[in-house]
Amino acid sequence: MIKVIPASDRHHAAHGWLDSYFLFSFADYYDLNNVQWGPLRVFNDDYIQGNSGFPEHAHSEMEIVTIVLEGEVTHTDSLGNNTVIKAGEVQRMTAGTGIRHSEHNHSDKDLHLYQLWFLSNKKGLAPSYEQKAIDYTGEKNELIPLVTGQRVLEDVLYMNSNSTVYHANLRDGKEIDFKTFPIRKSLLYVTSGELFVNGMQVQKNDQVRTADVDALRIKATADSSFILIDLPGVEANF
């Protein structure tokens, strides 16, 4: 199964200081048929104006991944962390038994980030926090792992989910083949450019969800970038 979901199908929540696009049910948007994809429960594409942000709020039993594309976000939490996450950096937060945090854009420039929530494969974990600068913004023409639950990958953040988040910058005419398994799912989200995924055309902010496929062949027809998330297909493997 390969399904292309156009950018126009995302839910748009506009709050003045925040423009957010929800790929899954979130906040005041609820669709019984669009709650999660495997353990991926939230994928929000957020644009946050300067000198604004999210006040302190609580999370529990989630693995939360923040990928900063433009600008920088200041994070503070109940563990005592007070950090700045810049473009090209990735954050992983295990909410576990409970954590409170805030996220603010203290600069005058807009902030663009993706925030992903994964259902944790372990309950009752102690809350924890990690961030890392990963060289994924250059012209790599390859999949760069950012965060994973698979300990065989190196130079990444680790989370409590049998999933891996990749980023790729793909030049016009270049191809990537991603081998997967029928027991896995995947989600591809186009950050920029234009791709063909298994022969299906997708453009900026479109997404592709797959299940029960053996491989993805991704070809750029313009300079492009995208997020690819490899996910378990059944709850027993989350």
Biggest pleated-sheet summary: 7 strands, mixed
List the helices and strands in order.
EEEEEEEEEEEEEEEEEEEEEE
Summing up helix and strand content along with how strands pair, one would put the structural category as mainly beta
Number of helices: 0
Mean pLDDT: 97
Overall radius of gyration: 17 Å
Strand order of the largest sheet: 1-20-17-22-15-13-14
- What share of residues are in beta strands? over 45%
Helix content: under 10%
Question: What characteristic shape results from the CA principal axes?
Answer: globular
Q: What is the β-strand count?
A: 22
Q: Report the span from N to C terminus.
A: 20 Å
* Low-confidence spans: none
Structural write-up:
This protein is mainly beta and 238 residues long. The protein has no helices and 22 strands. A seven-stranded mixed sheet has the order 1-20-17-22-15-13-14, with no helix packed on it. The model has no long low-confidence stretch (mean pLDDT 97).
Quick tags:
single chain; 238 residues; mainly beta; seven-stranded mixed sheet; seven-stranded antiparallel sheet; 22 strands; 0% helix
